[in-house]
Design goal:
The complex is a heterodimer of chains A (260) and B (145). By secondary structure, chain A is an all-alpha fold. Helix content of chain A is 74%, strand content 0%. Classes of the chains: A mainly alpha (260), B mainly alpha (145).
Chain lengths: 260, 145
């Protein structure tokens, strides 16, 4: 059964009533861990990207970059655990703060490979985007005499136009990772693409419908995100569960490997 | 309209959230003169009240919280805007405001010469100490060497 966005949000709110303590607490813990790690490397490594002029050596910058990338991956593994927590809440299964660390015990390599795969796809689309924005920026610069900053503006616009639809294909990969641990990374990305076919606009509109909530979060100086983020995440989970249910009978899903 | 709350069957979490929303909303009213406290608090109150409904309509407490918080945001923003208007149009207030601004600029200035500390009396260690002189010895006749 296909629900409209309003129904999905309603179901998400229903599921979350009485569970905001655990979702908000887990989100805070996740942010606390990643922030603490970033602060730690900033204090340990003397030269970092924020103080390039004071950097003692190129080695320290490289070390900082490597550490940052590792923390980004760790953060994403934590986030996949956070998504798993929402899946448990949505299915009314037992859940706890320890779900946050689910990714570390269950194929963390797949999470990293999924991130790398999506990143490489993004990069693949980014390079022509950068080239186009460079050409457009140069044209504006030579013909109209505008500042060279137009290059960055066009780069952002072109990247948004191209990368948003591309990334919308892969929004379900972490839900699939939690639901179908036997699938390979390639199969997860293909499956996500298949599921999102014809549903990307709906998902995009679903995310856009939270603009009002984010404006409220802005007014609350970001504190409101403690409750809004779980709400958004749960709505996305409901979207996945609905798609999963509705597409289960299609030819793609009837494959024994996926259902077995 | 769903009579979910009217039947007294509201989930406990929902009731708690609506109560929290109302309390934060009332606190926002109390701080309405301090816009950087009241507006965020009112926004949090609205968020809590809207989320407390679950899949149903907002409870009475939640509705009260939304009304109180919305009014607080409008009132606090209007009050702040009026204060800014007053400062820019009343010469006495403007002068006071500029004095405050100058004070804070000097207080947080990185330039030591224009720092507020310059206004304070210099410390002993800043002034060069006088060179040690020979001890003064009293001699007969009241004269000194």
């Amino acid at each position: 059964m296909i629900y409209d966005n309003r129904e999905l949000k309603k179901r998400a709110r229903q599921k979350l009533v009485g569970r905001y303590g655990i979702t908000a607490g887990t989100l805070l813990l996740c942010n606390l861990i990643t922030t603490a790690l970033f602060e730690l490397i900033q204090s340990v490594i003397p030269g970092n990207l924020y103080s390039l002029s004071q950097a003692s050596s190129m080695f320290s910058i490289a070390a900082y970059l490597v550490c940052s990338i590792i923390i980004v991956f760790l953060g994403n593994i934590l986030l996949s655990g956070y998504r798993y927590l929402h899946m448990n809440i949505a299915r009314q299964q037992p859940c706890s703060v320890s779900n946050l660390f689910y990714g570390f015990n269950h194929q963390p390599d797949k999470v990293i490979l999924l991130i790398l795969r999506v990143l490489s796809i993004n990069l693949l689309y980014m390079l022509p985007c950068l080239f186009i924005s460079y050409v457009v920026g140069s044209l504006f610069y030579t013909l109209l005499g505008t500042s060279i900053e137009i290059f960055s503006i066009t780069a952002i616009i072109v990247a948004a136009i191209v990368l948003i639809p591309v990334n919308l294909r892969y929004v379900l990969i972490f839900n699939l990772w939690a639901d179908y641990p036997d699938l390979t990374v390639k199969e997860m990305t293909l499956k996500s693409r298949e599921m999102m076919r014809g549903n990307r606009t709906r998902y995009f509109l679903l995310i856009l419908s939270f603009i009002g909530w984010y404006l409220l979060a802005l007014l609350s100086l970001g504190i409101g995100l403690i409750w809004i983020q779980p709400y958004v995440m749960m709505t996305c989970t409901q979207f996945y569960l609905e798609l999963n249910e509705s597409q289960r009978d299609t030819a793609y899903w009837s494959n024994e490997r996926y259902n077995g | 309209m769903n009579d979910f709350y009217d039947n007294g069957n509201a989930p406990e979490g929902s009731v708690k959230m609506a109560t929290a929303a109302l309390i934060v909303g009332i606190a926002a009213v109390l701080f309405f003169r301090i816009f950087y406290l009241s507006i965020p608090m009112a926004a949090i109150s609205i968020i809590l009240a809207l989320l407390s409904r679950g899949g149903y309509t907002v409870s009475l407490r939640g509705k009260l919280a939304i009304i109180v918080s919305s009014a607080t945001i409008i009132f606090s923003a209007s009050n702040t805007a009026y204060t800014i208007y007053q400062i820019y149009h009343d010469p006495v207030l403007r002068q006071q405001f500029e004095m405050y601004m100058e004070y804070f600029e000097r207080l947080y200035s990185e330039d030591e010469d224009s720092s507020i500390w310059e206004l304070l009396p210099r410390q002993e260690q800043d002034t060069p100490e006088p060179a040690p002189s020979a001890p003064v010895l009293p001699i007969e006749g009241g004269e000194q060497i």
